[in-house]
Write a structure and sequence with these properties.
The complex is a heterodimer. Helix content of chain A is about 30%, strand content about 25%. In chain A, the strands form 5 sheets. In chain A, strands 13, 14, 15, 16, 17, 18, 19, 20, 22 and 23 form a 10-stranded antiparallel beta sheet that branches. In chain A, strand 11 and strand 12 form a beta hairpin. Chain B has a single domain, classed as Nuclear Transport Factor 2, Chain: A (Roll). Chain B starts with a helix and ends in an 8-residue tail after the last strand. Classes of the chains: A alpha+beta, B alpha+beta. At the A-B interface, strand 14, helix 8, strand 20, helix 12 and helix 13 of A face strand 2, helix 3 and strand 7 of B.
Chain lengths: ~450, ~160
């Protein structure tokens, strides 16, 4: 639709006039393939991109195959315990080098013509090698940047970007609240689910921190759980927080800078959360405010552009692979504190299965709503989506809660129904699309 | 065909028919109160998860109440993913009864489910592992494990898709 005019038109896509009480986005951002192509180069390949969790590549030789904006890469655990990430293509004729999504191989041999690479990417074998071959020229292509933050592994194809810590910025304390839940850190639980979504990746980003939909889309979940509870317990840990879904509890939303966003809502029955068993230890080791956030506030964190970390009745890493303007593939993992009791682990998993899967009773409804939103966005005669709720009441910078925990958001809203957090998301998106900022 | 083989086959056919015809209460009645309904997730390309308690499943319901939750949700007409409800046709075959021990019977079967919904037609395959028990002369399901062979899922998956 925009084609070669895209550069000129970009500014027109985000109507940012907060002082006039207006913030709206042209729905072409969801549907236009020329815009998507520019997102691939200007955003996906140009900022810190979530790759995997370190527990997925725990031992020497463990590999994890994923992609960055459609380019296949794999993370490989080195002999010295460090991580490297390579383009997942044989230097010879480009065949994928990892037979599985996840596995262990201290050397990788291409299954096409048998070329062999060491764990550090060095080409050490060319089948029927011809005289004069310089194997050093065929070492695997390492991506420009790779860095972990407390177990979460990010990479970037471009070298000249800021440090990962600077990129995460105000989002770091939100990650810290998850990681602090075990002295030994977190681990991804075996099993996962991947689902295709017929919708734009930004709709998924929005949905992950959209408190406003919870009391409509997930009303049926709350009613189902309430009906279940009236019949007695069976999930292993009794209640799920249906009160949080019904509304009427303290909530907030934040624009965290660099496009990151977050929300929280007070739990009505925090004692049923799997983490509750760690209460005494947390109180000994952490500040009262951190303990309060961990135990009593359900939190959703969106990290621009491709990962969400949820810490609610269950805990989740949700990873996006945008495929086209009209499709995003999503993989969800249950991430849990290492060393928690079997009872807590089972409770965490059952809550995950209840809510967080397309075979569950909530994410399935989210996806249906998202796909309808995408389809509605095809209506070019009604092109604006407004993000105005809370536009006259938000706090510039940190509210009292943010100050107390110690993070500095761009904007704070005292209600997760509000949409001001998306302003930061779309401002950052526009900046990167225009090439004014790389990650 | 032995009487037991015939009886088991009829039960499995009946389940498929009740799901396709949306006769939810009769469907649930095929299960005992303590019936386990388990759909493991894929741990990797070749193996599903094997410990339903401590690994991630697509669905793991530890008694019939979990199935009742699903029916409650469908009948509420308040689930975005379930309105309009997908149409389904289950084709069950390869019914075998490898083990019979008094009132306890094990059976396996294969199932192809053709679904028609918002995304058009989708065909999905599953392997069924049943544990059955004779209760007051009637055969009931005490455990059903569904190995859903799709990995990258398209659209929502509920009990009637499986």
């Amino acid at each position: 639709m925009y084609g070669s005019n895209i550069q000129k038109e970009l500014d027109a896509l985000v109507d940012d006039r907060v002082s006039d009480g207006m913030f709206r986005v042209d729905r072409a951002v969801y549907t236009d393939e020329a815009i998507f192509e520019q997102e691939v180069s200007r955003i996906f390949e140009s900022c810190w991109w979530f790759l995997c969790h370190e527990s997925q590549v725990a031992n020497h030789g463990d590999y994890f195959w994923t992609d960055i904006g459609g380019q296949p890469v794999f993370v490989h655990r080195q002999e010295d315990g460090s991580l490297k990430c390579f383009i997942n293509a044989c230097s010879h004729r480009a065949a994928i080098l990892t037979p599985f999504k996840q596995g262990n191989a201290k050397t990788l041999t291409c299954r096409f013509h048998g070329w062999t690479y060491k764990c550090d990417g060095a080409c050490i074998g060319v089948k029927n090698e011809e005289e004069g071959t310089d194997k050093g020229k065929f070492d695997l292509r390492e991506i420009a940047r790779l860095k972990s933050y407390k177990g979460f592994v990010f990479g970037c194809l471009k070298p000249d970007i800021c440090s990962l810590e600077d990129w995460l910025g105000a989002a770091k304390p939100w990650i810290d609240l998850m990681v602090a839940q075990s002295p030994d850190g977190l681990e991804v639980v075996p099993g996962s689910s991947t689902y295709k979504t017929d919708g734009n990746w930004k709709l998924q980003a929005e949905n992950s921190v959209d408190g406003y939909h919870v009391s409509t889309v997930h009303r049926v979940f709350a009613h189902t759980i309430a009906a279940r509870e009236s019949k007695g317990e069976y999930t292993g840990i009794k209640k799920t927080e249906s009160g949080r879904i019904a509304g009427g509890v303290p909530t907030a939303g934040y624009s965290l800078g660099n496009g990151h966003m977050s929300i929280w809502a007070q739990h009505t029955t925090p004692e049923v959360r799997p983490i509750w068993e760690a209460k005494d230890r947390l109180e000994r080791e952490l500040s009262p405010i951190e303990v309060e956030w961990i135990l009593t506030r359900g939190r959703n964190l969106y990290l621009f552009p491709n990962v969400m970390l949820m810490d609610n009745p269950s805990t989740q890493i949700r990873v996006m692979k945008p495929v086209s303007a009209n499709r995003v593939d999503i993989t969800v993992y249950c991430v849990a504190p290492k060393g928690e009791s079997d009872r807590a682990r089972a409770g965490r998993l059952r809550k995950f299965e209840d809510f967080y899967l397309t075979a569950g009773m909530a994410t399935s409804d989210d996806i249906a709503a998202l796909e309808d939103t995408h389809e509605g966005s095809m209506a070019r005669d009604a092109k604006w989506s407004e993000f105005k709720r809370g536009i006259r009441t938000f706090t510039q910078g940190a509210d009292d809660d943010a100050k107390a925990l110690g993070f500095e958001p761009e904007a704070s809203s005292d209600n997760w129904d509000h949409e001001v957090l998306y302003h930061g998301f779309y401002r950052h998106w526009l900046k990167m699309m225009k090439g004014e900022q790389v990650g | 065909m032995s009487d037991v083989q015939q009886e088991v086959t009829n039960l499995i056919y009946r389940e498929a028919t009740l799901l396709d015809r949306r006769e939810w209460d009769d469907w649930i009645d095929l299960y005992t109160e303590d019936a386990v309904y388990w759909v493991p997730s894929w741990a990797n390309e070749e193996e599903t998860t094997h410990d339903p308690e401590l690994q991630l499943n697509l669905i793991y319901l530890r008694n019939r109440g979990g199935l009742e939750d699903r029916v409650f949700r469908i009948e509420s007409r308040d689930s975005y993913a379930s309105v309009p409800l997908d149409r389904t046709v289950h084709l069950v075959s390869n019914v075998l009864v490898p083990k019979e021990d008094g009132d306890d019977i094990e059976a396996t079967a294969n199932c192809i489910v053709h679904t028609y919904g918002k995304k058009g037609g989708l065909t999905r395959g599953s392997l069924y592992d049943f544990n059955l028990r004779r209760v007051d002369g009637e055969l009931k399901i005490t455990r059903k494990k569904i190995t859903f062979i799709d990995d990258r899922l398209e659209g929502p998956i509920d009990v009637y898709h499986l």
